Amino acid sequence: MARTPSFRNFPALPWGAGVTLLAVAGSVLACTVPVFRYALDRWEPDGFLLKLNSETARTEATRNLLRPFRANGGANLEIAETSLDLGAEAVLFFPGRTDKPVWTGPFTGETWERLLRSPGRETIAGHLLEGASAVFVLADEGTPADDLEAARIGKRLRFLESVARIPEIDPTDPSNRMGPGPELKIGFPLVRLRKSNPVESVFLDTLRGPEWYGNPSDGPFLGVVFGRGRVLDARPVPECDDEWIENTALFLVGACSCQVKNQNPGWDSLFAVDWDRALAAAGEKAATNQAPQEEKAIASATDSAGAPRVSGAPEAPAEAAVKPPVSPAATVSEAPVVVESRPAAADPQGGVGVAPAAPGNLPLRIALLAGAVFIAALSFRLLRR
After folding, report:
1. 115, 50 in Cβ contact below 8 A?
2. What DSSP assignment string belongs to 363-380?
3. For 120-170, what is each residue's pLDDT tens digit?
4. What distance in Å separates the CA atoms of residue 385 and residue 264, rounded to the nearest whole number?
5. Which of 252, 325, 328, 369 could be cross-linked to 159 through a Cys-Cys bond (beta carbons 3.0 to 4.6 Å apart)?
6. Please, are residues 70 and 99 in contact by the beta-carbon 8 Å criterion?
7. Distance between CA atoms of residues 10 and 229, nearest Å
8. Which 3 state secondary structure label does DSSP give 30?
9. Which residues pair with 339 in a beta bridge?
10. Which segments of 226-341 does DSSP mark as H helices, in order?
């Protein structure tokens, strides 16, 4: 058991005051960017390891397959040659887990493509780059029972989209600075993939994670992907009740209380995406789309202020604060099957989106930090006596 540090010999007043001031200053400076956006901006995905046996790695066919990847990268994957007996031509391992192979098999053009890409991953990455808070990935076989579960999960996600709010963000706080990317909004799309589809098999194994406790051949499971392809959690569907879905979704839209990636739950999956370049393109697209919206809002406000109200015209009904959830129709087709989700766009008037920012409090922060430093220095001097 870890030992509890003793503060018995510390001067009570100065030390206690210093800790209090440091705690208050830390809370004032805490990052309030949502977890999902902080991860998208700053958390680089960990690299998977692909080991090739020496004989395979030195063939002309292998060199030709790997040449574009070695030149351009674009995937969280490292490749190593080994003279050890792998039992196969190639083995893929989870990041930092050479005891946990994800995939084992021959190294061909077909298997190389499946390691890097699949239609499901392209769909998920597209949602994330369009601003989705998280993508819920349902792996099933499309049975009538699976359709009912998909409808239940989709209904809950639509409800959460209607009530979730992005935390208040202070733009004067440097820790709240966001990188280029899509519009900040709430959205929880649901993507369905067939477990039996061999094209998705590698991705589904990474989605289960290195500590999956069940049998991969067991029933359907649900995974939650956010950021740059990071998986927050994955569980068999019977364990994914409404409470779990709600807690998972609200954690991701809440303020990022811990900015260190490895101190947060989850693991990375394998995506062949140049995230920095893709986010820069998404940011340009968001800026282009935002300009006409702002012009339209200004024109609308001008028209509303200048046009007299027509006598006898009915008043527009006030929109309900919380809309009832709508159950999406579950569909059955080839993988991936996407239960359509339209993430709620940020409301410029303070609806689902960024709440109005609080007035700047930079002088207060400077005073608190200065006080904390002074008290800490005083405590250090008293301790040395």
Report:
1. yes
2. HHHHHHHHHHHHHHHHHH
3. 999 999 999 999 999 999 999 999 999 999 999 999 999 999 999 988 877
4. 40
5. 325
6. no
7. 46
8. coil
9. 190
10. 242-253, 275-306
Taken in order 91, 97, 100, 103, the sign of the CA dihedral is negative
- Span 363-374, pLDDT tens digits: 555 555 666 656
- Sheet of 48-53: strand order equals 77-82, 48-53, 90-94, 97-105
Separation of alpha carbons 190 and 41, rounded Å: 22
Q: Give the gyration radius of the chain's Cα atoms.
A: 25
**97, β-bridge pairs:** 94
Rounded Cα distance, 190 and 117, in Å: 19
Cα 240 from Cα 347, distance rounded (Å): 30
Closest by CA to 204, choosing from 190, 228, 223, is 223
Residues contacting 35, CB < 8 A, separation 6+: 226, 251, 252, 253, 254, 255, 256, 264
Q: Tell me which residue of 346, 184, 180, 203 sits closest to 252, measured CA to CA.
A: 184
Which residues sit opposite 235 in a β-bridge?
222
- Helical spans, DSSP H, in 43-143: 54-57, 60-72, 109-116, 119-129
CB count, 10 Å around CB of 107? 22
The percentage of the chain sitting over the pLDDT mark of 90, rounded to a whole number, equals 52
Mean pLDDT of the chain: 77
Give the pLDDT band (50/70/90) at residue 347: very low
Helix (H, G, I), strand (E, B) or coil at 232: strand
